[in-house]
Amino acid sequence: MIVGNMGILVLIFLLFLLCLKVPTYHAQQQDQTSSFSPHRTVIDVKGGPESVVWVVQLSDLHFSVHHPDRAFDFKTLLPPALSMINPSLVLITGDLTDGKSKDLLVMRQNEEEWVEYKNIMEDVVKRSGLDKSIFYDLRGNHDNFGVPVVGGSFDFYSKYSINGQLGRSGHVNSITLQAGEQKYLFVGLDSTMSVGLRGPTNLFGHPTDQLLTEIDLELAQWDSQSAKPVNKITFGHFPLSFSASSQSGRTLKDIFLKHSLSAYICGHLHSRFGKNLKRHHLSNHLLLSSQKFFQFNVHQIPSEGIKNCSFGAPPVEEFWEWEMGDWRKSRAMRILAIDRGHVSFAGIDFKSGSKKTIIIPTFPLDSRFMSTSSSHNEYECEHMLPSSYETVRALVFSVSPVVSVVAKIYDSRYGNLDNVMEATMTKHVDRSSRGDLYSVPWNYKAFEDPSADRFWLQIEATDIMGRTTLTELRPFSVNGLHAKVLWTWKEFFVMGCQWAALYYPILWLTMYFLLLLLLIPRAFLIFSRKQHAYKNFLAAKGLINGIAWVLQELCRVPIAWFGFLGYLFYLVLFPWFVGQVFTDGGDRGYMTYMGWVVKSSNNKRNDYIGSPDIMVVVLPHLIFVVLPAIFFAGALAAERAVHRDNFLSISGKKADDYGRLNKRSLRYDSRGNRRSKFHFDGRWMRSILLVLCLAICWKHFKNCRALMKAYEMNPLLHFPVYSLGIPVLLGYVIHKTKGA
């Protein structure tokens, strides 16, 4: 007996050591085709006001054959709005089409949606009166579902998008707006997978080292040529929290901090996670910083340093990240303006219909989402341009002539909003105007305050029809301080967590935890005199003692215990399932916890792509299926032990008599009457545990059904161990503990 147990322990120990080999590599990424060079454009902005430019951003259109209202509203609402706003650029940051079936489970390209997108965009361009060349539409992960190779027959983005039609084949596009002597640089980037998997394991941006180098070069193109500072803004689809690192470990954040961007604007997350999907990034050179994994607040707290007011001092390495929401359900649009170096934005909600008047305050800036550490430093050092501070300014767009624009400032010092300034703004008059900029002089020094949210600004505009439009109240700080904003837990979950960096730590912590749950109780059972039984638990109650007892009872069902251990090692050592990952069928790929191994259309093998995207399958299975299954299996075994002790104490029989007597008690009561088929003998805890086990199996069944449809799999052929392992183990434990 001792020799047999020692042999088992040696086998377990060897397997455990094998599992401890944590991968220290980055998932292999396919370099985007080097022949796709960046596309550079310089646009000379004609007309006034010369001191300000503005662009429009849209994102996550998700045109779908199953939801025609998305395209219809876009075609109806957008052309008149764009005509009224007259932007210098229109940026559409990904997910142009939906690529999902009606039940949302199959995710691949649908050419009908792309034809609709092309026709709608042609109509929007025509009716808005804007030049088609100022539209830039990026590829999102939905536009990449099941695309085996860029430029292939299923790459409908390259065929039907505006970028594709205009020959913008590169993964980086840079546009310089030149207004007078001032330049404004916009750099768009496509970081989608070069080998596009079907969803749900196509969720992250995957910038390669080549892409990061191209972005770096584009952002630096005016550094040595422009006499005045250049405002730099990048736009892409994925937030940085859903962007992986390159093979060398570099990230988009590293490049953006290097160039001290004004902002990175993106989409992907949609409005359902919250309205404050914004994040301020500040350089942190600490080697062991938690910022690699988490940022707990919208604003990154700057480290206290010595103020450097010399003109040769390097700029503060920082930038804002602004996710904008979606057109899919929210019908959202954003207008972003740059006024004498100050970047501001306003979100437009079309759910209530078209807008007659739109107002964007351009100065002072909203201290919650637009102030920067560099602005505060410039103000403290008196390096800012006084002319940019001497007036309150706002852009006003309206379908009807505007007769009055009023700036109102409120003081919240005493808990109420007291009006401390109300002044009529005047319109800047130019020979040829792109839009209307209103301003009013003020004594900005009177509004200096150590509180970033003491003063609040509101702009009111009235048109010739008598219609009044008010902006929302927004706090401001002329000395560049941040107003405190707290994320909700959902906002923190999607914006504050660096999921690409967190995947492997969470995976291995979970895997080690599951292994220890199985191995430690087994070791106590074999080697320790102190064993946890029901009587011990009654004598020393506590959570730890209860868990130890439950898990040790699972060890007393050896087939189930070895089954769970074998299942864990299977998940580590073997493919989870074999599925169809491309739109067109062809060779199947297989998925492990490290990613997908697939062959692309040129017969080239791609190893471990789609990491960390696969975390949406791997982590929920381990945490919400395997972990509770182990606990509930142990709980069933523990409930059997309790029932056994109670039975023996009541009957006065020995333990050896338990099996024989209990089999009869399952069929007959104390009077000799045959029991009902569904009688539980008063074992109400077992009934609850059976319901919980059924819930786990139902959850697992739903996950398997979704994967079956997503990757066209048969559970018996393509993932038998993954799909049947947990239900079979739970079924075995239920059978063994029903009365024995």
From TrEMBL:
Every TMEM62 C-terminal domain range: 504-720
Annotated ranges, domain TMEM62 Ig-like: 354-481
Originating organism: Theobroma cacao
Domain named Calcineurin-like phosphoesterase: residues: 55-271
GO molecular function: hydrolase activity
Name used for this protein in its record: Calcineurin-like metallo-phosphoesterase superfamily protein
Signal peptide: 1-27
Classification via InterPro entries: Calcineurin-like_PHP, Ig_TMM62, Metallo-depent_PP-like, TMEM62_C
Transmembrane region(s): 502-525, 559-578, 614-638, 684-701, 716-734
Keyword rRNA processing: no
